[in-house]
Amino acid sequence: MSWLHCIECGERYSSNDPRYTCECGGLLEVRYEEVPSRADFSGPPGVWRYSSVLPLETADSVTLHEGGTPLYDADKLSDEIGVEIHVKHEGMNPTGSFKDRGMTVGVSKAIELGIERVACASTGNTSAALAAYGAAADIPAVVLLPQGKVAMGKVAQALMHGAQLIELDGNFDECLRIVRDLAEEGFFYVLNSINPYRLEGQKTIAFEVLEQMNWEVPDRVVLPIGNAGNISAIYKGFREFYHAGIIDEMPMMTGVQAEGASPLVGALQKGGKLKPFESPETKATAIRIGDPVNAPKAREAISETDGTATSVTDEELMDAQVKLAQREGIGVEPASATSVAGVKKLLNDGVIDSTETVVCVTTGHLLKDPDAALEASGDTIKTDATHEAVRQALD
Ligand SMILES: Cc1ncc(COP(=O)(O)O)c(C=O)c1O
Ligand SMILES: [Zn+2]
């Protein structure tokens, strides 16, 4: 049994109420009667292994077998950077990003609620995931995108899976505002991370990391922050296991933003209200977000775990993307590489201790953004089609 709980005023709403926020304006989160227990987790690796702590009551799940992603020991990168790094590669999900975890739960819940059309604003990955899960559920999907600012692979996915794509002459934050307004008017159900059910799917990243580490809690979990949903979701996953007594400590939740889109870092440093970036800019287009809607949840995640947030430059994140690809064989998109770039920076700043065990969550696959990959990794060698020319090139 689950319900929706306002994180600001504590008001409670029925789980049959398709709402995103409280009357007071506060964000909602899903709460459960059941206390999670390791004995309840069964079935193959993946999101639905944890169905006892997911909010579906009557409907069948709409699944593409999401989750169950690898956790790599990044030994060479660890040696080079100077701290033990494990990489949870969420790019290995069905559509190539962690958003699939959120969408399997979000779209399933939408079907349970009797919703007839779903929508999102997106920097790309949400649109690909919504389109695919919309197709699997046979429900129409609408996507609002910031024109010219979404990586090619993601647009291709969303179109191929049959979503209706509308490109706006504006940024992501404007797209999200319009989607939320139109949802109020009854046009569709929003599946951005403002939707509390999306985050329930994403919290399973925490559960999987724990199982993959034989229930040893990592000292720190580091991941990119855009709209700040994923850091909030993963924190919630750890917190539920902590409150159930399954684990006895929490990892320090650590978020990384791109310098040109780092309002949360500014708010944490200065304290007080978050000041949105009016014109966020970064090559990591997935996190080109100036006004993260889940900031209140993310601030709790960070402060309650003694975590932190930092920002990295585009050069730093591109360098980390190349290192992950070339030292470890792990292909990630630019936004995902902020995690590793952030670890390097925080270690240099003395915030991360070299004895820590760190899990970096790499949120999306290299192939999502081929243009960025080419820009970061150099050019091909072109020669005549002769034995001699290739020999010379090899020298
Ligand atoms: C690859 C990638 N990483 C990170 C993020 C940021 O996640 P969140 O918006 O939950 O902070 C996104 C969001 O679009 C993404 O696509
Ligand atoms: Zn409230």
Describe this structure in words.
Among the domains are: about 1-35, no CATH class; about 70-95 and about 200-375, Rossmann fold (3-Layer(aba) Sandwich). It has 14 helices and 13 strands. The chain has helices spanning about 75-80, 100-110, 125-135, 150-160, 170-185, 195-200, 205-210, 230-245, 265-270, 295-305, 315-330, 335-350, 370-375, 385-395; strands at about 1-5, 10-15, 30, 70-75, 85-90, 120, 140-145, 165-170, 190, 220-225, 250-260, 310, 355-360. Helix 8 links the parallel strand 10 and strand 11. It is globular. The structure holds pyridoxal-5'-phosphate and zinc ion. Pyridoxal-5'-phosphate binds near residues 227 and 228. Zinc ion binds near residues 8, 22 and 24.
Compute the number of helices. 14
Which fold does the CATH topology of the domain at 71-94 and 198-377 refer to? Answer: Rossmann fold
* Rg value: 20 Å
Head-to-tail CA distance between termini = 67 Å
In spatial order, strands of the major sheet run 4-5-13-10-11-12
Question: In sequence order, what are the helices and strands, one letter per element?
Answer: EEEEHEHEHEHEHEHHEHEHHEHHEHH
Characterize the overall form.
Answer: globular
Mean pLDDT: 97
The total of beta strands comes to: 13
Q: Compounds present?
A: pyridoxal-5'-phosphate, zinc ion
Strand content: 15-25%
Name given to the CATH architecture of the domain at 71-94 and 198-377: 3-Layer(aba) Sandwich
User: How helix-rich are the residues, as a percent range?
Assistant: 25-40%
Please give the CATH class of the domain at 71-94 and 198-377: Alpha Beta
